[in-house]
Design brief:
Length: about 210
């Protein structure tokens, strides 16, 4: 590893739950993100809850937007959780149009159920179908995960999708992977054994993603 695991604190995230989950799986040492720590990070974890615009504003105030983009372009693994996954997108229409980090092609838009028994926000446990074998879902094995969201990521390329849920009779993307970029819409830190397994899969794969010097 070239550096420590860097965790971005948006100050609108449930950071304590994430840190507790990392402790449970024995994750490598980690620090809270600064522009300097991101430059030498071995991986970046981007958790978050709340509104897209607030998340990008927090990144901007902390001067983390360009360091994260540059780190991603260098091949540093970036793992977005919930809002963190959405922030990887190009833009969101939540409370107006907001630019994202632009690391994954696609946009974030509001859930639009066509059945009365599906509500917005989507809160609760949902079975995730693994669409292919991936780093987070080895052997294409997913599970049941806790979701809290009113918006969802619509990727431009279907090939980045690794997991979906059935929402209102339609598959909705809740997990993506593209090279060194990873994202899950659900909360692995609140999803018991299945969630811990996703986090452990990410950290166990990091040595294979080590950047050459």
């Amino acid at each position: 590893m070239t550096g420590e695991i860097v965790i971005v604190d948006l100050q609108i995230s449930n950071l304590a739950s994430v840190l507790q989950a990392l402790q449970q799986i024995g994750a490598p040492s980690h620090v809270i993100a600064t522009p300097e720590s991101i430059r030498s990070a071995s991986a970046i974890l981007l958790p978050g809850v709340g509104a897209f615009g607030d998340g990008m504003a927090s990144l901007g105030q902390k001067q983390l937007i360009e360091p994260i983009r540059q780190a991603a372009s260098r091949g540093t693994p970036v793992f977005g959780i919930c809002l963190g996954m959405q922030l990887l997108a190009q833009h969101s229409d939540e409370f107006g149009l907001h630019a994202g980090l632009g690391l994954l092609e696609g946009h974030v838009t509001r859930l639009k159920p066509n059945r009365a028994d599906f509500r917005v926000p989507n809160i609760g446990w949902c079975d995730v179908t693994a669409t292919r074998e991936s780093t987070l879902f080895p052997n294409a094995r997913a599970g049941c995960y806790y979701h809290v969201h009113s918006y969802h990521f619509v990727p431009q390329l279907k090939s980045v999708t690794t997991g979906t849920i059935d929402y209102s009779g339609t598959p909705h993307v809740v997990a993506v992977e593209a090279g060194n970029l990873f994202g899950v819409q659900f909360h692995p830190e609140k999803s018991q054994d299945d969630g811990l397994r996703v986090l452990a899969s990410f950290f166990s794969a990091l040595p294979k993603m080590q950047r050459p010097h």
